[in-house]
Design brief:
Blueprint: E1 3-6, E2 9-13, E3 20-24, E4 43-46, H1 51-56, E5 62-67, H2 72-87, E6 93-98, H3 103-108, E7 116-121, E8 124-130, H4 135-145
Parallel strand pairs: 4-6, 5-6
Antiparallel strand pairs: 1-2, 2-3, 5-7, 7-8
The structure holds zinc ion.
C-alpha cells in the first residue's frame, strides 16, 4: 500500500520520484507531486459526512468504490482499483466508502450489492458497475467513459500509460 488515510489528507509516495506528498481529501483539480510535478494517485476514504466535498465538488472524474470489510469480492477488486488510480493519476480520483458506515450514500445510489462502482463527474453519475471485475475490464470501462482531455492544470510531458500487454 502506498497510501495511508489520516483524517482529511493522505500521504502518497510519488510513483515517479518517490517523494512523499501530503494529498488533501478534497481540492480543485488533481494533486501533483511537490517535487517532480507529475500527477500523483489520488485515493481517498470518505463517509456520508464528507461525500459532498470529496465527491460532488471534485473537478476531476471520481470513481466511488462502495465496499464493506466483510465483502470478499470487494477485497479482490480493491488492488485493481488502486492500480488504475495510479495509471490514471491526474485524470481520476478514487474514493472508497464503507457501505456499513454510509447509509445515506447507499440510499442515494440505491446500492443493493457490493462492490458497487460509481463513476461521477461534477456530482452527476456517468456510469455504474455492480460486482467485481478484473483489472483489464475495469480499465476498458473507465477509459471508455473518462473525458479524453486532461482536466488538471498545466499538463506536463508525461501522459499516463495506456494498456499494457
Ligand atoms: Zn514526484
Amino acid at each position: 500500500m502506498s497510501t495511508t488515510a489520516k483524517g482529511h489528507s493522505t500521504v502518497v509516495v510519488c510513483p515517479h520520484c518517490s517523494a512523499r506528498n501530503r494529498v488533501p481529501a478534497a481540492a480543485r483539480g488533481a494533486p501533483r507531486c511537490g517535487n517532480c510535478r507529475n500527477p500523483v494517485p489520488w485515493i481517498v476514504d470518505t463517509s456520508d459526512a464528507d461525500f459532498t466535498t470529496v465527491v460532488d465538488e471534485a473537478t476531476v472524474p471520481v470513481l466511488v468504490d462502495v465496499w464493506a470489510p466483510w465483502c470478499g469480492p470487494c477485497r479482490m477488486v480493491s488492488p485493481a482499483l488502486e492500480q488504475l488510480a495510479t495509471e490514471l493519476a491526474g485524470r481520476l480520483k478514487l474514493v472508497k466508502i464503507n457501505a456499513d458506515e454510509a447509509p445515506e450514500v447507499s440510499r442515494r445510489f440505491e446500492v443493493r450489492a457490493i462492490p458497487t462502482l460509481i463513476l461521477m463527474l461534477h456530482g452527476q453519475v456517468i456510469d455504474k458497475q455492480i460486482g467485481a471485475a478484473p483489472a483489464h475490464a475495469l480499465r476498458s470501462w473507465l477509459t471508455a467513459h473518462l473525458p479524453s482531455e486532461d482536466v488538471g492544470p498545466a499538463r506536463v510531458n508525461n501522459p499516463p500509460p495506456g494498456d499494457r500487454p
